[in-house]
Design brief:
3-stranded antiparallel sheet; 22% strand; TIM Barrel; 7-stranded mixed sheet; 227 residues; 10 strands; alpha/beta
Length: 227
């Protein structure tokens, strides 16, 4: 059972500084239960591994993949937990079947988060953006990231101004619903993920105090405590 994985497992085993492993590339949940169990069990045998993450669209687009066999292969109580981050970009993608699949994952000890992509004309208006993140929470999926749409060929019509995502979090989420619904807005680059959240809330500061503004435009002040 090699599928180009044993070399990677051996490399991880030789690098005790690694504590967090992400399984991605294509969709890992398309692998058979046996292959997933092999991979997860080998990682869990390494004393330096503290958590395992899986990136998969299947809880959204193929929720009946969450079977008893899959849950047995990757779930269960263990000191090395599995986190699944899925990708849902619009509230209409979330069905009752997805809700049941997520509940089944959570019930066997697997945590579920979401990584959305900001898409012009799809989820870049206040009402859709808010409903997406509220519906994720109603489905027990924790909003994690919203990615700025990358400059890949042929998708320029889906790209918004960079500032748009931060504006949507300010105008649709922050103060308008629970803070649990607020994702981190980032851009994936060749030097890693870069947060794109400008500070709208610190209006001014001096040696004495900070001036802060909330989502309603109301102003308050707090003391400036020097280091």
């Amino acid at each position: 059972m090699r599928f180009n994985v044993d070399e990677g497992l051996a490399w991880i085993a030789e690098h005790p500084e690694i504590r967090d492993v992400l399984i991605t590339g294509g969709d890992p949940l398309l692998l058979s239960d046996d292959k997933l169990e092999y991979l997860i069990s080998k990682l869990r045998q390494m004393p330096h591994i503290e958590m395992i993450r899986i990136g998969s669209r299947l809880p959204i687009v193929l929720p009946h993949r969450i079977t008893e066999g899959l849950k047995k292969a990757i779930g269960g109580f263990h000191k090395v937990p599995v986190w699944i981050n899925t990708q849902c970009n619009h509230p209409k993608e979330i069905t009752e079947k997805t809700a049941k699949a997520v509940y089944d994952l959570l019930s066997c000890g697997i945590n579920v988060g979401n990584q959305a992509v900001l898409l012009k004309g799809i989820n870049d208006d206040v009402d859709t953006f808010r409903e997406l993140h509220q519906k994720l929470l109603r489905t027990r999926i924790r909003p994690y990231y919203v990615f700025y749409c990358e400059p890949a060929p042929g998708i320029d019509h889906f790209r918004t101004p960079v500032e748009k995502g931060a504006e949507l979090i300010r105008d649709a989420i922050r103060g308008h619903t629970t803070g649990l619904a607020q994702p981190m807005y980032v851009l994936a680059t060749n030097i890693g993920k870069i947060p794109l959240m400008p500070d709208y809330y610190i209006v001014d500061k001096n040696e004495k105090e900070y001036t802060l503004r909330n989502y309603k435009g109301e102003i308050t002040k707090i003391p400036n405590i020097p280091e």
